[in-house]
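Task 17 of the worksheet. Students: predict the tertiary structure of the chain below and write it out as structure tokens. Keep your answer in the requested format; marks are given for formatting as well as content.
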Amino acid sequence: MNGPSRRARILVTVIASVLLAALATATVLIARRNAEPAPGGGADPVAAASPGAGRPGGPGLRVLSNGLLSTVSLADPAGPRTVTDQRCDRAYTAGGTTACLTPAGALSAPRLLVLDEGLQVKRSVSLAGLPNRTRVSADGRMVAWTLFVGGDSYAGGGFSTRTGILDTRTGEVIDSLEEFAVFRDGKRYRAADVNVWGVTFAADSHRFYATVSSGGVRSLAEGDVAARTLRTLADNVECPSLSPDGTRVAFKQAVGADPGKGWRLTVLDLATGRRTESAETRSVDDQAAWLDDRALAYGLQRDDGTNDVWTVPADGGGEPRVLVQGANSPAVLPAA
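Model answer:
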């Protein structure tokens, strides 16, 4: 028996290709539209999928929803969210600038994408490592990022980070804050194992806070971009986040100064040195964000690996509650 004609084989191939393309498109659209349900079930919180930025009329909250840059209303964070097609591992928005750390692939390195208010790419920086943290100064000028370049957990002790800063106005890139001079107790400190991560900017943009680690001690340090210095202020402080009024730092404090025991979300008063533990008693391995001067937002992962954004008062009172289901990397957006 003769086999199928050449024309028939070509026709079958074309039909199969069209069907596969349609299936792939449907899969992407469904994945983009669906967010993980709440722990006890609930409706799909994603009501729109759009390539545009999308902004609520009032203050909003920018998050990553299934890894896609998204926006929800701060007044109704459980309501509809607008989902873009921009994929990020970590993201943060401030001053009209969005920093997006793209995922590392098997054949591709991660990148820092600097997006404008319409989420158009203004700048792209090649990076190496696993994306971990990113922050933007309040005026949108300065962008910071942290990547793991060895190991995959703060708790393991055998990791290394690389933290850099981009000045979007001048285009200057500081590849590694480990080049900065470190001062401890007023004296220059030198060690081969210095690591820096988790930048948060002060109001003047060139001043910032970060974690400096050496000899097993993780410390809050105040940094100066112009002077290229880092001065330690307090120990057992990781992933700081400066309050909008500039008086306090939210951070993750290792239980018993041992990251292997987990972290307690805590707030440090910069003037008095007083620490206030939040009502969140679960281990928070995140760089918290401030919703305002009274409340914190942070990511927690469920047992199935899904992230949710939670909130808790910064004064130690109240109790934690879910803010946005199936999301992480929260950042407050002003009213449009």
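Marker's comment: Confidence is low (pLDDT under 50) at residues 1-53, 151-156. Residues 6-33 form the longest helix (28 residues).
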